């Protein structure tokens, strides 16, 4: 009964793991886990399930062994012969790995020299060792071919050069990203940038500006009225430095310049989208300069 209780407890832990796994998949929507993170969670869950299944299998096997043993004991008693236990799976496996002659039969493999009581046995090479030896020969051939003949895998110096080149290009993109500020930011409709901006927006801004930018605690970002200026430079500046006493966080301490760049461009795409439940306009009307000059030009033409 005690073991039964123990295994019920194990089952409880297993169920708990399943439930926590479930909430983490729900979290992936709320907290925007990346695909990689979700994959990691799924893989670890599968691993946990595999381990549990293995434990259960071994437990069932051990029960089976005990039952077989008891049955053998009973039958030996009935027949009145001494009970000889079958070697277990592990000892059979071990014997097949070492292929050693049992100590009782040692004399059959003993060599005839004897140095001050040190005797030598002529055992076979242990199979585990022989197979490892063959495997290392195969490995050496494959290695030789891949690295030195076909050249399909990089040698140390090449690996070093590849790593250096990668670090160089990483540094370049990092430099390009960190040199962005309110003085040189420009709008881009590059889908990769806008998508990254959307992710930044969804992770950090939705709480106050709402999903469509219609505004909540923070102002409406889709209209043409701005408290702190509506040019892309002004918007970047507001995001970077915030309006701490009005509840807008200074994101410059939290987000990298390139992330702020992306979200600034993303916000530009929200303009004029007229989402439902839009908050009333606040601040001053801002018109794009280009639009202004276009209208004045067309007016002049008329
Ligand atoms: C904790 C709530 C909160 C969060 C989160 C928040 N904001 Fe704001 N935001 C505000 C408030 C409040 C204002 C208005 C400040 C004022 O009244 O001067 C504002 C103003 C702004 C403005 C200026 C609007 C205008 O009319 O000039 C921009 C742009 C802006 N936020 C962008 C963002 C971005 C981008 C994020 C996410 C990275 C973000 N906000 C996250 C509360 C927030």
Shape call: elongated
Biggest sheet, in brief?
A: 2 strands, antiparallel
CATH architecture of one domain: Orthogonal Bundle
Helical proportion, percent range: 55-70%
The CATH topology assignment of one domain is Cytochrome Bc1 Complex, Chain D, domain 2
Helix-strand category? mainly alpha
The SSE string, one letter per element, is: HHHEEHHHHEHHEH
The CATH class label of one domain is: Mainly Alpha
- How far apart, in Å, are the first and last alpha carbons? 97 Å
Share of β-strand residues? under 5%
Helices, by number, come to: 10
Low-confidence stretches: 24-30, 290-302
Bound molecules: heme C
Which sequence of strands runs across the widest sheet?
1-2
Radius of gyration: 36 Å
- Report the mean per-residue pLDDT as an integer: 84
Let me know the number of strands: 4
CATH superfamily of one domain: Cytochrome c-like domain
What does the model show?
Helices cover 61% and strands 5% of the residues. It is elongated, with a radius of gyration of 36 Å. Among the domains are: 2-86; 191-287, Cytochrome c-like domain (Cytochrome Bc1 Complex, Chain D, domain 2, Orthogonal Bundle), CATH 1.10.760. The chain is mostly helical. The strands form two sheets. Strands 1-2 form a two-stranded antiparallel sheet. A two-stranded antiparallel sheet has the order 3-4. Bound molecules: heme C. Heme C binds next to helix 7, helix 8 and helix 9.
